[in-house]
Amino acid sequence: MKKKIIGITIFILIAGAIGIVLANNKAKIDKAAHQEKEHKLIPVKVYEAKEDSFNTSFVINGTTIPAKEVKIASEVQGKLLSLLVDNGDVVKAGQTIAILDAAVFNVQLSSIEASLAKARLDLARYTKLIEMGGATPMQAESAELQINSLIAEKKQVIEQISHMQIRAPFSGKIENVNVEVGSFVSYGTVLAQLIDNSSLKINIYLSEQEAIKVKKGQNVTISSVVLAEPKAGSISMVSDKADASGKFLAEITFSNTDKEKLKAGILADVHFTMEEIETGISVPVSALLGSANEAKVYVANGDKAELRHIKTGIVTSNKVQVTEGLKANEVVIISGQINLENGTPVSINKRIAKSE
Question: Which residues of the chain fall below pLDDT 70?
């Protein structure tokens, strides 16, 4: 029994010693790993923020749309007797493009004219009988009311007959014809689409900084990859109210009657040339994190990276104007940000001079 107790005691002491050794080894490993993590420096490239000048001219792209575009629809119902246009035909304002069957309305018109002639004869007869004492003024008034009612009804039928000839509201090109001769059309049936490409529009959306710099009537330049030379245009409208995204709608119009014509639906760039020059703190676009509306940069503060929220102004293809959150000569990180967090130790392996 005594030997058994001694054996158990020895086993417990050995197990305890092994546990202590393992615990010490784990502590050493964790400490070494923690120290390695703490002292690991992230190599970065930096740039010294500087006072700079910014050209306030800017370019915004948009898609061309026709100045005039309408769906030609029937205002009455009836059978389509004639279709006088086809896709691609050029028509003039007022030109007849389709004719509907007006037989029913012509019958109505003949009936109304017959009733109107009789009513006028009745009025003349009552007028003579009143002079002779053979009729009352009330009978003449009744005949006159009937005449006026028939005249109003005749005008309505004539107007309906006029709608049986469907005409082009303006000059342009016919597209998307979607009816056939002999088909029955009802009120609102679209027969075709009419497009006037003699002038085009481009709807673009401006930021608040851009919207306050432009005005109605201001000249702009339109360019496109399909154009050999830019076109001249002007601002025809600038919205006074921003949309849900904080943008202001502006409408650009330009003539499309030159030898080199644009079609609707083509992507184009609108160039706004501004005379004034603005100054401010400048950093490279590569320093910017997030969008221009919620911009951030990493500042090399000593040997650590500091995440800084900034406000931006003019953004060009290679530099950004910083209006708040950064001062001249502060060092911003322009490469290596993907590995950074706020407070990460950094080592500067390349410094870009202000003049570069």
Answer: 1-39, 292, 352-356
Residue ranges of domains in the chain:
42-55+277-352, 58-66+198-272, 103-162
Relative to beta strand 219-223, strand 248-255 is: unpaired
Q: Which CATH class is domain 58-66+198-272?
A: mainly beta
Query: Is 36 in contact with 28 (CB distance < 8 Å)?
Result: no
Model pLDDT for residues 253-283, shown as the tens digit of each residue? 999 988 888 889 999 999 998 877 888 899 9
Listed in sequence order, the residues at least 6 apart from 345 whose beta carbon sits closer than 8 Å to its beta carbon are 38, 39, 40, 41, 42, 303, 304, 305
The alpha carbon dihedral of 59, 61, 62, 67 has a sign of positive
Shortest CA distance to 284 belongs to which of 316, 325, 319, 331? 319
Strand order in the sheet with 184-185: 165-167, 96-100, 78-83, 184-185
Q: Residue with structure tokens 């008034």?
A: 141
From the options 3.20.20.370, 2.40.420.20, 3.40.50.300, 3.40.190.10, give the CATH code of 42-55+277-352: 2.40.420.20
Distance CA 274, CA 346 (A): 41
Query: Looking at residue 2, what is its pLDDT?
Result: 53
Helix, strand, coil tally for the chain in percent (to 5): 30, 40, 30
| Cβ contacts of 55 within 8 Å, gap of 6 or more | 274, 277, 316
Tokens 């004539």 correspond to 158
The pTM is what?
Answer: 0.58
pLDDT for res 143: 84
**The pLDDT value given to residue 32:** 52
d(CA 78, CA 86): 20
The arrangement of secondary structure in 103-162, i.e. its CATH architecture, is: Orthogonal Bundle (1.10)
